[in-house]
Each structure stands twice: as structure tokens, then as C-alpha cells.
Amino acid sequence: MTGIVYKSTGSLYSVKTHDNQFYDCRIKGKFRIKGIKSTNPIAVGDLVDFELDETSDETIGLIHNIHERTNYIVRKSVNLSKQSHIIASNIDIVFLLVTINNPITTTSFIDRFLVTAEAYHIKAVLVFNKIDTYDDATLDDQLFLQYIYSQIGYECLRVSATAGKGLVELKKMMEGKVCMFSGHSGVGKSTLVNALEPNLNLKTKEISDLHQQGQHTTTFAEMFDLSFNSKIIDTPGIRGFGIVDMEKSEIKGYFPEFFELEDQCKFNNCLHKDEPNCAIKNALEEDKIAWSRYKSYLQILEGDEEQYRNDIYAEGRNQDFD
């Protein structure tokens, strides 16, 4: 039998077949996908082959094959630095939910996520949520971030899940696609899914007053079929986003605004760091490239592994706009 993994709890997988039947499945043996040392060999979105084992009291599926993935989103496992964690696979479009202050989403986090999406050829859209709660200063911050990323070429949406703003535009982008919502805990992923499809009634929680930090309401990634011809993968909140297996020479190619200019650099192998006559650094001085983006690039280039582990909520907001 063949089906799509709709939910993964780490040891048990819910698989949906073409006739809309769900089966609880386990892994038969060990999987090693293209040498990836992953904490989860099977991810939500995987197309798998399984067989039913009816020898026990309950019928359970045994997964024995994973079909080749078209793409996947992967990050470094925070607790196991040499391991990666595949968040989801076979995605048409990923929506990164961004909030300005409730909780804070730093540009460092945004850029690491976008670099990973670029590396695995997944279209990424920034969704600025909770716009109904912004005062003038917060609105200025949001519009400034939107300007930075729209200038690069990323589509940006402004929504309010609670007030119902921007949902029509979001639905249009989602129609006919396998979509994923991602972001920190507390940015409103589950609330937004509920606004798009109220019958799902996903659990939500309030932001912690002490740390302005989200509480994990989604424990495992899970896919849902939506009434407007779309699938959504709701994912647990991500505290940090560690980059996996990228050579220094390739990182610059995942910053679109760098890629457009780098043929003007004096050296073909320019890393845009210490080299003379660097078009990227020239553009930076002329304010044609955002300093926050360049700072993120240097952090990734230099392997600043502590950056994605830090408690971002304790960091000063101003550092992202210096």
C-alpha cells in the first residue's frame, strides 16, 4: 500500500492512502535517506510504501520504503548538533509567520529560514501576523521589514488571524498547493489555520507574559486537508534555526540580492568578507543591501552556531536594525 504521511510523533506515523483511509504505521527496520543523519527518518509529507501487520491485536502498518522527495525543510537539531531534523517534505510553498513584538521574530531567524528554503528550492512567503495589535512604532518596524524583503523579491502578506484581515489573499496563494506554516511558538500558526478552516479547531494558547514567548501548542508536525483545495502542514514552534550542511562558497547563492551583483566582484570566488573591490560591500555602503541581511550572511558564513541556540527573546530589538 502507498500513502502520504500526515502526522509524525517520532515513533508512530499516520498515513493516508489514495482512498482517504488513515493507517497508523511504524518503521520496518532502519532508514538512511541519502546519508542524512536525521533525528526523524520519515517526515510529514513523505510518500511511503507500507504493508499491514495483522498478527497482533491491533492492525498496524509497517513502512518499508520512502519515495524520493522533491524537497524538504531541514534544520539542525538544537540538542544534537551533529544531527538534523526534517520538518516536512514535498512542499509547494512555505509561509513563515513573523511577529514584531509578540513574540519578537529577529531578522537573523528570518534569514536563516529563507536561506534554507532557497537551498531546497521551496518558494517562501513572509506572513506578518497580528497587524491589528500594532501601535505606530511597531507598524514602522513591520513596514521596514516588509520593505527589505519585498525589495529582494520575497512576497509579503499582512494578516490578522483574529481580525480576519488578509485571509482572502492568503487563501488564493494556498489553493491547489501543499503548504507549510512555520515560525516561533506564539506567532499564531494554529490560530491562523483555525481562521482559514474553523472546523479544524486546533489548540491555541496565549503568549507568556513573563517572557513574551510562545508556548508550544503544536507538539508534532501534522498535515490537514482544507476545504479550498489545499493542504496545510502545521508545525511546532521553532526557537532557533540551525543551518545544515552548506559549504561556505554556496551560502552567498542563497541570498538573491547578493547573487544578482556578485558577477561585478573583482574575484570570482569572492566571499564578500575581506576581499577588495567587492560589489556586495559596495552596495552595502550605498544602502542597496540591508545591513541586517549582511550580518546574517556573516553569521552563517562564520558558522556562528551559538546564534540560533540563543534565547532570542532576551536580545535587544535594536540589533536587527543597526
Explained architecture:
With 322 residues, the chain is of the alpha/beta class. The protein is built from eight helices and 13 strands. The protein has helices at residues 107-119, 136-152, 167-174, 189-196, 248-251, 256-261, 279-285, 291-301, and strands at residues 2-8, 13-17, 22-27, 47-53, 60-66, 72-76, 84-89, 93-98, 123-128, 155-158, 178-182, 222-226, 230-234. A six-stranded mixed beta sheet has the order 10-9-8-11-13-12, sandwiched between helices. A five-stranded mixed β-barrel has the order 1-2-3-5-4. It is globular. The termini are far apart. The relative contact order is 0.13.
Distance between the termini: 55 Å
What is Rg? 21 Å
Please give the share of residues in helix: 10-25%
Q: Quickly count the helices.
A: 8
Strand neighbour order, sheet with most strands: 10-9-8-11-13-12
Run of helices and strands? EEEEEEEEHEHEHEHEEHHHH
The overall strand count is 13
Described by the principal axes of the CA atoms, the overall outline is: globular
What composes the largest sheet? 6 strands, mixed
Strand content: 15-25%
Question: Mean of the pLDDT scores?
Answer: 83
- Secondary structure class reads alpha/beta
Query: Unreliable runs, pLDDT <50, ≥5 residues?
Result: 206-218, 308-322
Descriptive labels:
alpha/beta; six-stranded mixed sheet; five-stranded mixed beta barrel
Task: Provide a short characterization of the protein structure.
The protein has 322 residues and is of the alpha/beta class.
